[in-house]
Amino acid sequence: MLTIKTLNENDDLVFEASVICEYSRPWDSQNFDIDRGRITDEIIDEICSSEQNLKFGYKDEFESEFCFEHMLEDSLPKWMKEFIISDGDRHIRFKNGYLVLRSQVNIPKEKYLHALKSSEGEPIPADHFSDETLRSVYKNFVVSTLCDFSFLFSIAANIAKPGSIQFRTRYLVHDQELIKKTGGTLNFFEEAFEISKKYSWPPIECLNFSVVWNWLVNVPGFTLGESKTPLGRAIAALSYLLNDDYKDEEQLALVWALIGLESLYCSGSLNLKQQLMERSEIFLGSRPTFKKQFGHIYDFRSRLVHGDKNMHYKNFDPDPGNVFTDTLTESESFAISTLISTLQKMSVNQLYELNFRTILQNNSSSP
Predict the structure, then answer these.
(1) Can you say whether residue 175 is alpha, beta or left, with left for phi > 0 and alpha for psi between -120 and 50 degrees?
(2) In the predicted structure, residue 196 carries a pLDDT above the cut 80
(3) N or C end of the chain: smaller count of CB under 10 Å?
(4) What residue ranges do the domains of the chain occupy?
């Protein structure tokens, strides 16, 4: 719930709000080599059992503390059920759970009195607005902050345990009233485990959420949702693979994954394919198989974006065994797996950039 103290120069503004993230527990694991339901349960337990609240800033205007609560459908408060159960877009055939993010935002008076800016960035005096307008402005601050934070949480969770969190819908709430409903963070990241087992490369692990989160919050621009470094660009590229609908990812997944990989492994504009192939092996280990095929992923992307590949129309499902679709799906999965594997290893080793040097060594003996 959100409450605002009297708007005067002696009081801070205090907000409380919630975002309710609906997720569907994955299907039974009989058709998968990893128990997808288990890793979802694990990462939710990790974040909900955290003894310390997570902190998140909003563009240097204020800093908030967030805590999490896990609920199942039968334990939802009545006021939540009223708008969630009645939502016509719900996927009732799945076992639904809810990760509720709660935040209390305290904005010091010296901040809120000067936080309002014009489109040119000039401060707007607070006395130009009514109390009702100021309440609306700062309510939107909180809603935007929570929405942003839930998305960043999903990025961290899916790097730590690929495919572990699949938010279908996020409900943003104030005073037990639904303010807005926004999209989810659906993805196919769990396929990284399948690729890793099939080709014995790249290495994919199940990491602790806090390890990845504590690493990410130190990436310049991460909490603002903008990239400022090559690593930031790779994370930004990964974020475009989290979508409202599974089909949304299919369009440019390969392009986004390779953008992320190039930002980490490549320099300059020449021999990018060779740089990516060689440097990814240096960092992630040698590929036991699929050596030449990995280069074919790059070639496939190049032909695709330069209009040299036939493809089916959007909204048309291809026939089973369609060569283009099968090749695209395999290429996407392998590129995404390589990107996630790289980010996992960087987080474990607390690395914020990858630097490679080429050394020419003369092994010939002197006469």
Answers:
(1) left
(2) yes
(3) C
(4) 13-182, 191-348
